[in-house]
Structures are given as structure tokens and as C-alpha cells.
């Protein structure tokens, strides 16, 4: 039984452009997959293929247990779509918009109206319910758009760059809404250019570039690929470098393919790969303290998704490869 | 927020025809609400035909000969069917611009992601345009009466004439729907929906007696789908000028049938293409 969203070898070409070059995806039920990639990577095309808007040239897609190519109408009954290319009618009021969508999901007029009222309340739009959407702020429009995608509480949701163009406060608000939504068990595929957003909302992240998924995993797994977390200790006394280094060795992952311990004498700084996060950090601090090693600074350095992203897709990766080669040559 | 995840069951589609009609009405209602909230569209749409009524009546009225008559009154009555027919064809631009705008704003994507009938977005749009066309015709008919237009047949025939005009307008809004789905911007849809209407409506019997055209143009005019409706309306309104020679071409001899057939063919052809285009709209 494949996940709530499953895609295998999706290919789509527009003229000479191979927008999708064999996309494989699997999103287990009740989880959130963040599709991360730069503009033109194929994120939107992937969503359009999975939501029946676009027919892939080849490949297989299953959503909510239904074959997207063979049962498009049944798929449409099980999905909600929101974001960059879903929209609301700006000359209709918030209520009229939601009611219309409800009716087009084949709800009876009365049920659609009741559902619209419910959603307006939930999305903090009750006061603006009878104003045309034209008068809404950007954040309100996005909320209305999201509400429209939720009219039938579909088991599978797609959001294409849901927060693009929103200010930080509105983005935060929308994140809260999305989090509450997925805590109820909805499966969500979300595309974003914001690494922070994927990190914040998604269980799993698939990095897309040039129409292909080039890496997939949890945020932590992806970060580990760029070298995992490191602990950095700056000791107060130069003579403590040795003992601190020996102590850190107990926690270090060096030799496990995660990089090595480095010591910068002139800065009295020791860096070593670890895993275990803040809890481990507290442990190390206690240990150093017990052994009478005074420190000036200590910190956990985790690679950001930006690091991951650049190392996977950008020229940075090539530059880094060069450096690696040089280091090996030494 | 918890209710967000309450399950609202989506009923499986019943009878597909019933669903199609129901969905079309939902979309038509949406477009009519829009129309009521943007009344300038309707009002500006009226300027041009009213201007034509006034200009043609008073500027050309005395100098254009129709049939064997060159009286101003004969031309006035002859003219109105032409202007009515031209006006209803302008529904093309409205439908085209509306649908291009929906594409542009992403609404077509929203509709296409919903479990609704595939033709309903376009049918709903053309239905709303039909209402707009009817309103326009009412206003225009009042203006025409004010400048001296009269009918000389019974009320039933006059209604048949207006019915044919509405059908022609409806048919042309399907051409507009196809144009709207095929262009990138609403502006392009507006101009793309209007430009070809000028030669189409002028190389016809709408404003002049086609008998007086050079024979090459006369043939085009006589077989022009648009001419059939104009000729049919003139017959239904009793507006054929004295001494008018009905051309021998079949559509001119049987204009009511010709008008019906042309409109139905246009609907069948362009609706098929437009719905196909909608299904695969990128």
C-alpha cells in the first residue's frame, strides 16, 4: 500500500524544456512533505501533475489510493489545493467564495453555506465575511484561499508556496494554521523556496532541482549529509586545550564519517562532530565544569538547510568538491 | 480549529447531466454577481451600439439606399436588425476577457481541481453572458424605438427575431470562451475577440443592402452566418424595405432556418474545442 501521495518516474516536457525528469515521491499518510527547490526546479509542475491539472508524459501517480491518471474525478474529491495558483474571486465576498467552492464540491447549497460560516469563523474572517475579497489584505486572502481548499476537509492537501509574498507576521499566522491542520491527520505536500518553512512544517523534505528529486529525508538527515552538528568549545586557558580535547573525545563522532576534531590553538578553540543536540551540550558543559576546565564560549553549530541546499544544488557544491579533492591530495 | 478536520462527506456524483447543469448554474450565478458588482462593464458595453444607432440613423440615414427606397425611415428600420445582431456578437469579447481573466488569476486552476463537471465553468460563463446580452438588447431596443424604429409583424414573430439574436449571441460567446482559454492576458482576449468581428459584421447585409456589393463580396455577405440572422430578424420584424430583392442564396431565402443552423453549428463546434482546451489548460 503506497503512501497517501505516491509518484514514480513523473516526466513532463514543455517543448524543449524537461520540467519533470523522473520525479519519485512518497508521502506516508498523516505526514507533511516539503518540496524544496529554486524557481523553475519543477515544484509547481509536480503539484499540478498530482492534482490532475496537468497530465504527465509518463510515470505513475497515486493520491489517496486513487490513480491520478485513471480516476481524476475521484482524486479531485479527495484533495484540497491552495497557494500560488489556486485563487479566490475578488468580486465575491468571502462567504460567497467558500459557498461556491462547497457547491462545486457537490455539497447542497445549505450545507455549503453552513460550512462556509464555520470556516470563516475558524480562519478569523467572520468580520470580513460579507466584504468582497478585493478589500482583503494579502494575509486575509491567503487565509480565504486556504479555507477554500479545506471546504470538504480533504484527506490530502497540496499547498504551492503558501506563504510566498507574505510578511513575517502573516507567515507565522499561516504556519500556525497549517500546523493545526496537519495535527489532525491530514497528509500535506507543501512546496516552498523557504528553507525555514520546510524545516518548520515538514516531517520530510525532498530537494528538487532540474525536475528531479536530488535528496530526500528528514531535515536532520539532510543536514547530516552536509556534515552533522558540531560542538565548538573555546577554553579560557591555553593549557586546557589538551584536556578539553581529550574530554570531548568521549562525545565525538570523529572517525564515523562525520569529519574530524579540529583544534585552533591561537583561538583556543576545539571543534568536533557530535549528535544529541542541546541535551548533549548541557552534558558536556557539566563534564567540563566537573573537571575544572573553564570555558569562554561553547556552542552547537548545525548546518542550516541553506547549507544543505547550496551543497546539493548550487555551484557551492562544485566549489566544495574541489576543496575536498585538494584536501585528499594533501 | 479542530473542526477543520471534521469529515465532510463529498457525495459521489449522481447523474452527470444533472451535475453539469447544477455546476453551470453555480458558475453562472457567480458571474452574474460579478456583473452586478462591476456595472461599468454593462454600461460601457452599451455605449458603442447606442452610438451606432444614433450615428447610422442620422449621419448615413439619408444617403444609403436600401431596396428601392432611399427614405430615412426605411433605412432606420432596415438598420436596427444589423445593429442588434452586431451588438450580440460583442458577447465574444466579454466571454473571452472574463475567461482569460480567470485563467490569469488562477481561478481556472481552482475550478479544474474541483470535482465539478468539466464544461460547467465555460457553460456558466456563457449563460451569464446570455443574460447580459438580453439586458443590452432591451436597452438598445428602447433606444431604437426612440429614434423611430417600428416593427410591422405580430408579437410572436418579433419574439422569434429576438430569440434568434440571443442564440447568435450565445453561439458567439463560445467563440469568446475558446479565445479566452487560448490567450495569455484579458487584454489580448478583448482585442482578439473584437478585431475579426468588424470585417465579419461589415461584410454582411447588416448596414447596407448586399445586393449593391461587388459580386465577390456579395457572395461572402450572403453566406455569412451573421447575415442569416440579420435577414431573419428583418423578416420577423417586418423591416424589409419596399422593393427589396431577396437574394437567391439559400440562407437568404430561408433565413430563420439558416440562422438556427449556423448558431447551432457554431455552438457545437466551438463548445467542443473550448471544453477540450479547458480540460488541458496549462
3D structure, described in words:
The complex is a heterodimer of chains A (330) and B (282). Chain A contains twelve helices and 14 strands. In chain A, helix 3 crosses helix 4 (109-122), helix 3 (94-104) packs parallel to helix 5 and helix 11 packs across helix 12 (315-329). Chain A is α/β, with parallel strands linked by helices and 330 residues long. The model of chain A is unreliable at 315-330 (pLDDT under 50). Chain B is mostly helical and 282 residues long. In chain B, helix 2 crosses helix 6. Chain B is elongated. Residues 1-9 of chain B have low confidence and may be disordered. The relative contact order of chain B is 0.15. Chain B has helices at 16-37, 39-60, 72-89, 91-105, 107-112, 120-146, 155-182, 186-194, 197-202, 215-223, 225-237, 250-253, 255-280. Chain B starts with 15 loop residues before the first helix and ends with a helix. The chains are: A alpha/beta (330), B mainly alpha (282). Chains A and B meet through helix 2, helix 3, helix 4 and helix 6 of A and helix 1 and helix 5 of B.
Number of strands of chain A: 14
Major beta sheet summary of chain B: none
Please summarize the sheet with the most strands of chain A.
Answer: 6 strands, mixed
Q: What Rg of chain A is obtained from the alpha carbons, in whole angstroms?
A: 24 Å
Please state the oligomeric state of the protein chains shown: heterodimer
**Content of β-strand of chain A:** 25-35%
- Kindly name the structural category of chain B: mainly alpha
- The share of residues in extended strands of chain B comes to under 5%
Form type of chain A: elongated
**Count of alpha and pi helical runs of chain A:** 12
Helix content of chain A: 25-40%
Spans of chain B of at least 5 consecutive residues whose pLDDT stays below 50 are 1-9
The mean pLDDT of chain A is 85
Order of helices and strands of chain A: EEEHEEHEHHHEHEHEEHEHEEHEHH
Amino acid at each position: 500500500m503506497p503512501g497517501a501521495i505516491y509518484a514514480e518516474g513523473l516526466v513532463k516536457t514543455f517543448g524543449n524544456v524537461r520540467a519533470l525528469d523522473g520525479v519519485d515521491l512518497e508521502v506516508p499518510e498523516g505526514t507533511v512533505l516539503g518540496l524544496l527547490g529554486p524557481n523553475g526546479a519543477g515544484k509547481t509542475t509536480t503539484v499540478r501533475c498530482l492534482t490532475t491539472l496537468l497530465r504527465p508524459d509518463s510515470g505513475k501517480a497515486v493520491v489517496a489510493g486513487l490513480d491520478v491518471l485513471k480516476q481524476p474525478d475521484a482524486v479531485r474529491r479527495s484533495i484540497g489545493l491552495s497557494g500560488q495558483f489556486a485563487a479566490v474571486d475578488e468580486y465575491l465576498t468571502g462567504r460567497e467564495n467558500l459557498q461556491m467552492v462547497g457547491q462545486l464540491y457537490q455539497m447542497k447549497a445549505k450545507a455549503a453555506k453552513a460550512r462556509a460560516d464555520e470556516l470563516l469563523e475558524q480562519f478569523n474572517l467572520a468580520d470580513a465575511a460579507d466584504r468582497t475579497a478585493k478589500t482583503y489584505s494579502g494575509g486575509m486572502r491567503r487565509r480565504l484561499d486556504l479555507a477554500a481548499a479545506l471546504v470538504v476537509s480533504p484527506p490530502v492537501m497540496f499547498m504551492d508556496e503558501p506563504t510566498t509574498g507574505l510578511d513575517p507576521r502573516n507567515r507565522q499566522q499561516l504556519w500556525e494554521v497549517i500546523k493545526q491542520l496537519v495535527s489532525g491527520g491530514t497528509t500535506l505536500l507543501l512546496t516552498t523556496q523557504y528553507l525555514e518553512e520546510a524545516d518548520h512544517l515538514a516531517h520530510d523534505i525532498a530537494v528538487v532541482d532540474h525536475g528531479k528529486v536530488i535528496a530526500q529525508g528528514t531535515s536532520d538527515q539532510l543536514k547530516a549529509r552536509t556534515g552533522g552538528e558540531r560542538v565548538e568549545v573555546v577554553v579560557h586557558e591555553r593549557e586546557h586545550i589538551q584536556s578539553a580535547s581529550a574530554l570531548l573525545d568521549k562525545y565525538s563522532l570523529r572517525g564515523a564519517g562525520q569529519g574530524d576534531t579540529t583544534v585552533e590553538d591561537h583561538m583556543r578553540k576545539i571543534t568536533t562532530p557530535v549528535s544529541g543536540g542541546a541535551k548533549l551540550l548541557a552534558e558536556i558543559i557539566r563534564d567540563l565544569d566537573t573537571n575544572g576546565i573553564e570555558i569562554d564560549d561553547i556552542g552547537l553549530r548545525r548546518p542550516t538547510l541553506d547549507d544543505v541546499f547550496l551543497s546539493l544544488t548550487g555551484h557551492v557544491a562544485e566549489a566544495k568538491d574541489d576543496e575536498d579533492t585538494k584536501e585528499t591530495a594533501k | 480549529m479542530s473542526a477543520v478536520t471534521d469529515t465532510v462527506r463529498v457525495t459521489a456524483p449522481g447523474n452527470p447531466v444533472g451535475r453539469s447543469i447544477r455546476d453551470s448554474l453555480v458558475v453562472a450565478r457567480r458571474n452574474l454577481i460579478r456583473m452586478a458588482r462591476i456595472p461599468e462593464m454593462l454600461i460601457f458595453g452599451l455605449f458603442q451600439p447606442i452610438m451606432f444607432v444614433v450615428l447610422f440613423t442620422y449621419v448615413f440615414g439619408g444617403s444609403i439606399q436600401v431596396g428601392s427606397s432611399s427614405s430615412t425611415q426605411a433605412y432606420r428600420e432596415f438598420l436596427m436588425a444589423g445593429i442588434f445582431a452586431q451588438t450580440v456578437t460583442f458577447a465574444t469579447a466579454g466571454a473571452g476577457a472574463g475567461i482569460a481573466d480567470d485563467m490569469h488569476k488562477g481561478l481556472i486552476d481552482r475550478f479544474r481541481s474541483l470535482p465539478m463537471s468539466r464544461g460547467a465553468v465555460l457553460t456558466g460563463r456563457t449563460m451569464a453572458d446570455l443574460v447580459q446580452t438580453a439586458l443590452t438588447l432591451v436597452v438598445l431596443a428602447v433606444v431604437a424605438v426612440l429614434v423611430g424604429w417600428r416593427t410591422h409583424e405580430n408579437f410572436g414573430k418579433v419574439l422569434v427575431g429576438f430569440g434568434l439574436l440571443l442564440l447568435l449571441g450565445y453561439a458567439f460567446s463560445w467563440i469568446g470562451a475558446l479565445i479566452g482559454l487560448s490567450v495569455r492576458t484579458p487584454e489580448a482576449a478583448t482585442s482578439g475577440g473584437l478585431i475579426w468581428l468588424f470585417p465579419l459584421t461589415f461584410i454582411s447585409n447588416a448596414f447596407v443592402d448586399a445586393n449593391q456589393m461587388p459580386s465577390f463580396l456579395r457572395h461572402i455577405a450572403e453566406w455569412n452566418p451573421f447575415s442569416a440572422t440579420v435577414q431573419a430578424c428583418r423578416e420577423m420584424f417586418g423591416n424589409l424595405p419596399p422593393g427589396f430583392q431577396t437574394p437567391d442564396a439559400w440562407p437568404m431565402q430561408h433565413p430563420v432556418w439558416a440562422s438556427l443552423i449556423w448558431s447551432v453549428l457554431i455552438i457545437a463546434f466551438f463548445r467542443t474545442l473550448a471544453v477540450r482546451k479547458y480540460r488541458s489548460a496549462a
